[in-house]
Amino acid sequence: MTLQIKSLEEYHKVYKGSIDQPEKFWAKQARTFEWRKPWKKVLEYEFDSPNVKWFIGGKLNITENCLDRHLKDRGDQIALIWEPNDPSQVYKTYTYKELYTEVCRCANMLKANGIKKGDRVCFYMPMVPELTIAVLACARIGAIHSVVFAGFSANALADRIKDATCKMVICSDYNARGAKLIPVKAVVDEALTMDCDSVETVLVFKNTGDKVKMKRNRDKWWHNEIEGQRKTCRAAQMDSEDILFILYTSGSTGKPKGVVHTCGGYMVYTCFSFKNVFQYKPGDIYWCTADIGWITGHSYIIYGPLLAGATTMMFEGVPTFPDAGRFWHICEKHKVNQFYTAPTAIRALMAKGDHWPTHYDLNSLKVLGTVGEPINEEAWNWYKEKIGKNKLPIVDTWWQTETGGIMISGLGDISPQKPTYAGYPLPGIQMCLVNSDGKEIRGKDKEGLLCIKFPWPSMIRTTYGDHERCRQVYFSAFKGMYFTGDGARRDKKGMYRIIGRVDDVINVSGHRMGTAEVENAINEHPQVIESAVVGYPHDIKGQGIYAYVISQDKAVDDAFRKEILQVVTKEIGPIAKPDKIQFVSGLPKTRSGKIMRRILRKIASGDTSRLGDVSTLLNPEVVKAIKAGALS
Length: 632
Ligand code: WT7
Known about the structure:
By secondary structure, the chain is an alpha/beta fold. 31% of the residues lie in helices and 24% in strands. It has an eight-stranded mixed β-sheet with strand order 12-11-8-6-7-14-15-24, sandwiched between helices. A hairpin with a 5-residue loop joins β25 and β26. 5'-O-[(S)-butoxy(hydroxy)phosphoryl]adenosine (WT7) is lined by residues 249, 295-296, 371-374, 396-401, 422, 484-486, 498, 500-501, 507, 512.
């Protein structure tokens, strides 16, 4: 069984061992899984290219480790609980045996529809069990899944389908989210009008049963296709370094990139980190509220928990439907032991009043987790007091789509608690701080740019179809290091606190967005000449989106603002809509034509006092006008 650390002393000991002899440490963890063929070499790496390979020559199938492996000992244990959007609807459960059968049937359905090893399958689905089943079915036959969060627009979906040249799209008819009904199939239809020539089949899961159009010879109903499929499906033999999935994420420039994760290392690391961070014990009910459209859902709803033989829950709805007690109601109803959510959800629920959690019995809870953005002290304290009754540990887990798994976090109740600090790195994770010259900052009580100086099993291997971009974004800033894009502080005890992004990436309600991406969307409006987007502190969302827009021949009024919001919704999705739009006559630029975002960020945050030296600007006079017109 994968190691589960039981005390702080043991953590420090294991950590040291994992750094002194990383290959030995990870080989030991990897041996606790089932491999068709053992690896010949644990690790080969070189950060310049980058070229990272773990468990070289090893053959496996991750679903045999998620499912088959558990059938003997816990076949009748519940693997998956599904809690529907509508609380009056009955919830569903799947035992490991049942989940195994459903995954096999689904895998056979995919094969019958022409999906083969290496093919890319795009998902645009609500949080229903069929999403988990079909993701695992892809992994079972060696197809590569690319899950797209169903809040993205048709344009954004089309970009992702094209980039990965997906052969199939799996979607639902409609999604039910809170009181809303979202026409998912119609969005897919629209996306497929945009040169998505690679798509041969659209598989539609009947979710709400509302009417949709089906295109002949392309669109097929899930329930028709799955009928009569065999209940077993031999798993494809995968190489450790074969691609398991692609997941798109935003960076500081250009379009979102497809982060590639591979089978072997990802399996070992997600299971290991899950067991240790959440201190999962057999019989526990674990709930992560994330959407499977993000990495958190991949690693800590599906793979990590199932690899560890846990009972994992997925929730279709939203935290405030039918009311702000929903999360706590679900915790009581299913006797949840580990609860994992995002600071933005905590802040939103906190704003609804302290009484909501008091209506429910939260005594089953043992560990509270948070992820996605820095958690402010107020939210941390509220979580600790009102949900944890001052008794439960909070694990503040820092990681990224690219890291595949949690890098810095407390381990259940073992680690020291310090509000707003993520804490110590997990075993095998060699975090460091560097200054802007790339020199490592050693010692305690220091601040710097957060890097990782040694490979870990679940790290990004490439950006799909563009390896150079991967090198450039993550491995070119500092030699021999992976650069995270975050700034951090290390305290006297070596615990880390994440300060936030130091690049042009903003984090809105835990959703990662490139400012350039939002600008490009705004610029699609024919009357927009130029725009600049920055983040600013927002009470609930963590960061809000502030857009400065230069327009042409157009009355700068609310109707225009609305049009801009529509364009952004169309290009990216509603999550990228600016909270504030300020029309300006010019943007502060350096002599080389670069927008001085530092100034714009300050003004957006409401701090117009000390803007620093603006004399080097090409157009210092615009700063005054922007200040005067700033929106509060
Ligand atoms: C960025 C990665 C990893 C799952 C969710 C987000 C920020 C993430 C924390 C945390 C402070 C955090 C960072 C990071 N972030 N977790 N616990 N404390 N910041 O994944 O979309 O790839 O975003 O989210 O800025 O770089 P992602």
